């Protein structure tokens, strides 16, 4: 995977296991026990008496047990969330158009380039050096596409990321900021955001940048995962702010351009990751979704704490943003 890990170990995002039983675990045990009479009837295996097994009630046994109540997720401190949310808004507003334009230009240039034998990444860097970068990206310090995953120059990488040296990681930070914003304010599940429809996720489908649409009430349209059945889910909506509608519109525009240039399939979802070596867009998956969170937290240097003598950083996860 095109992942460079984290600058620090992460603060745990799930609670430590507690002693005792959960009702769910107990029900599984009872179900297994209640199958013993079936084994006896089918195979003639004789053991303990099975009379009354059908009357075993997991809930009643649970009342007599040492209980373990699941505190599955750890809530991120409010100050950490607000710090990341504020920085995410500013970064996306300032940089989204320039980063999208530059990444698209590079993907098209690489797509048209005829590669020869030798290091592909060096040739990609050569192609990168010939594209016209927007002035604000030059001012930010963007000068290369990426760092080779197995490079010996990994030391100082995160400072280079914060100094905006690599266009690829600027894009990853941008996606991280978008996911932090939509994850916090729309409060949807990770899978619901990953599977947003590329053209039908914003309602009304009207350009929110136009003054005539400033008074419209925009909604995010999504497929609610815990509705319907395994293959069909209900389509629901949640109200969103005008700035968020603009951000979604920007992402829709970038994805639409990728489709027009046949870089992706019409069936691909809204959110795209960029394959580092192929320099092509691919649908965001769970691992890249979390990688976007990680690099955004390292870029903005979210709070660190010492846990048992180890310095750890708050790396956000979607389940924390919904709480």
Produce a short descriptive summary.
The protein is mainly α. It is 45% helix and 9% strand.
Amount of beta strand: 5-15%
Assign a percent range to the helix content.
40-55%
> Element order, helices and strands?
EHHHHHHHHHEEEHEEHEEH
Sheet bearing the most strands, described? 3 strands, mixed
List the helices and strands and how they pair.
Blueprint: E1 9-10, H1 23-33, H2 36-43, H3 58-63, H4 78-112, H5 120-130, H6 135-140, H7 157-162, H8 167-185, H9 190-194, E2 202-203, E3 219-223, E4 235-239, H10 242-260, E5 272-275, E6 280-283, H11 286-299, E7 304-307, E8 310-313, H12 318-321
Parallel strand pairs: 1-8
Antiparallel strand pairs: 2-3, 3-4, 5-6, 7-8
Helix pairs in contact: 4-8, 4-10, 8-11
What does this structure look like?
With 323 residues, the protein is mostly helical. Helix content is 45%, strand content 9%. It has twelve helices and eight strands. The chain has helices at residues 23-33, 36-43, 58-63, 78-112, 120-130, 135-140, 157-162, 167-185, 190-194, 242-260, 286-299, 318-321, and strands at 9-10, 202-203, 219-223, 235-239, 272-275, 280-283, 304-307, 310-313. A hairpin with a 4-residue loop joins strand 5 and strand 6 (280-283). The longest helix is centred in the first third of the chain and has 35 residues, at 78-112. The model has no long low-confidence stretch (mean pLDDT 88).
């Amino acid at each position: 995977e095109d992942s460079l890990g984290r600058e620090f170990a992460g603060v745990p995002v799930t609670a430590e296991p507690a002693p005792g039983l959960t009702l769910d675990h107990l029900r599984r045990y009872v179900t297994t026990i209640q199958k013993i009479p079936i084994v006896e009837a089918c195979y003639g295996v004789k053991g303990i008496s099975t009379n009354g097994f059908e009357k075993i009630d997991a809930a009643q046994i649970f009342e007599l047990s040492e209980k373990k109540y699941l505190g599955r997720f750890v809530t991120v401190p409010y100050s950490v969330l607000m710090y990341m949310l504020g920085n995410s808004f500013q970064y996306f507003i300032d940089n989204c158009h320039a980063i999208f334009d530059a990444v698209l230009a590079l993907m098209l240039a690489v797509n048209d380039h005829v590669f020869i034998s030798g290091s592909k990444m060096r040739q990609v860097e050569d192609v990168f050096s010939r594209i016209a970068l927007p002035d604000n990206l030059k001012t930010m310090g963007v000068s290369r596409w990426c760092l080779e995953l197995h490079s010996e120059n990994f030391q100082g990488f995160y400072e280079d990321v914060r100094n905006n040296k690599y266009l690829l990681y600027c894009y990853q930070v941008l996606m991280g900021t978008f996911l932090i914003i939509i994850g916090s304010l729309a409060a949807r599940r990770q899978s619901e955001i990953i599977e947003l429809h590329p053209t039908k996720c914003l309602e009304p489908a009207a350009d929110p940048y136009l003054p005539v649409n400033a008074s419209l009430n925009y909604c995010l349209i999504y497929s609610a995962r815990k509705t319907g059945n395994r293959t069909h889910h209900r389509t629901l909506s949640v109200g969103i702010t005008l700035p968020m509608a603009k951000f979604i519109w920007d992402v829709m525009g970038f994805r639409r351009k990728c489709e027009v240039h046949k870089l992706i399939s019409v069936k691909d979802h809204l959110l795209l990751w960029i394959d580092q070596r192929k320099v092509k867009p691919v649908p965001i998956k769970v691992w890249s979704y979390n990688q976007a969170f990680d690099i955004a937290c390292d870029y903005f240097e979210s709070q660190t704490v010492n846990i048992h003598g180890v310095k750890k950083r708050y790396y956000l996860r979607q389940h924390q943003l919904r709480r």
